[in-house]
Amino acid sequence: MPNTTIADGPRTLVLLALFIMAATGCVSIPGEPDPNDPWEPWNRSMYDFNDGIDK
Asked: At residue 53, does pLDDT exceed 90?
């Protein structure tokens, strides 16, 4: 049985590099939120309706 370690071979290095690139691609800085909410009037009316029903 051959004596192998986890870091043997170029295939392992390539897989490790791909994993690191994939993991760092998930770490992105979100942009600034848009302060203009086109649904705000509807959301406020639904909130008032639900608040009235809950009381």
From this structure: yes
The mean pLDDT value of the chain amounts to: 83
How many other C-beta atoms are found inside a 10 Å radius of the C-beta of residue 41?
A: 9
CA distance 43 to 50: 10
> Which of 31, 28, 11 is CA-nearest to residue 19?
11
What is the enclosing helix (H) or strand (E) of 2? none
Calculate the alpha carbon distances from 21 to 3, 17, 18, 28, 47 in Å.
29, 6, 5, 12, 43
Alpha-carbon span 55 to 7, nearest angstrom: 64
pTM recorded for the entire structure: 0.38
Residue at 35: amino acid letter: P
